[in-house]
């Protein structure tokens, strides 16, 4: 009747998670429309559409509400034009579900955005725990020269809503190479959410 307790070994350099129940990859060809420099994206994709940008290993429990999903995200270093490799990004479909990310190896930025469009960019590296509070859109960015590996944990009834980023033309900020390593610049294609859109996001809280 009870699920058995389990222990899992994380390899900080590869993101391998022992006894994971699932694994998926995102390749360049899965990430069309994310990057500002469409020419650079097409060139990279033509070279190798199957190039892996990130890999997720996860453990999903059998039961839903009240349980947790946890795992690792391994992200390749790289850029599309000036913009660093990043995850697709999402808000949780049940918007008030939070998440934690812990740096295992490499360095990067957790880019966060509220429904109203307020932005935060938090650096993550080994031994840094980043807390993504309820209602924040989140995307991981590898700003370093090595793979970025993080472990994550979030409630199992969270879900992911990717449309929130698509509908606004991306996130308000883009993380690009700058003189100091990385910098956040405005996304020219960004369309702020209307009051009705914000209210619809807030209404997903449960
Ligand atoms: O779902 P995305 O935006 O492609 O990013 C993947 C990351 O987000 C998660 O879905 C967790 O929120 C993890 O699987 C992984 O860390
Ligand atoms: Fe998430």
From TrEMBL:
This entry's Enzyme Commission designation comes to: 5.3.1.9
Please give the pathway this protein is involved in: Carbohydrate degradation; glycolysis; D-glyceraldehyde 3-phosphate and glycerone phosphate from D-glucose: step 2/4
One Pfam family assigned to this protein is: GPI
User: A Gene Ontology biological process annotation?
Assistant: gluconeogenesis
One Gene Ontology term, aspect cellular component: cytoplasm
In the UniProt record, does the keyword Isomerase occur?
Answer: yes
Which Gene3D superfamilies does its entry note? Jelly Rolls
EC main class here is isomerase
Q: Where is the Glucose-6-phosphate isomerase prokaryote domain?
A: 26-183
Return the InterPro entries for the record: G6P_isomerase_prok, RmlC-like_jellyroll, RmlC_Cupin_sf
Its protein name is glucose-6-phosphate isomerase
Q: Which organism is it from?
A: Sagittula stellata (strain ATCC 700073 / DSM 11524 / E-37)
């Amino acid at each position: 009747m009870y699920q058995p307790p389990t222990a899992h070994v994380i390899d900080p350099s590869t993101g391998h998670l022992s006894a994971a129940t699932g694994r998926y990859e995102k390749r360049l060809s899965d990430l069309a429309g994310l990057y500002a420099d469409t020419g650079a994206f097409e060139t990279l994709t033509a070279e190798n559409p199957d190039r892996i940008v990130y890999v997720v290993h996860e453990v999903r429990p059998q039961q839903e509400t009240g349980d947790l999903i946890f795992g690792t995200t391994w992200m390749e270093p790289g850029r599309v034009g000036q913009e660093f490799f990043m995850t697709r990004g999402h808000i949780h479909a049940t918007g008030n579900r939070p998440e934690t990310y812990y740096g295992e190896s490499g360095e990067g930025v957790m880019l966060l955005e509220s429904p109203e469009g307020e932005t935060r960019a938090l650096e993550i590296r080994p031994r840094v725990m980043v807390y993504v509070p309820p209602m924040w859109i989140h995307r991981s960015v590898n700003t370093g020269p090595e793979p970025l590996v993080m472990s994550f944990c979030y409630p199992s009834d969270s879900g992911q809503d990717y449309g929130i980023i698509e509908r606004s033309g991306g996130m308000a900020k883009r993380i690009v190479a700058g003189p100091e390593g990385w910098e956040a610049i405005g996304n020219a294609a960004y369309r702020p959410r209307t009051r009705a859109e914000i209210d619809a996001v807030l209404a997903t809280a449960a």
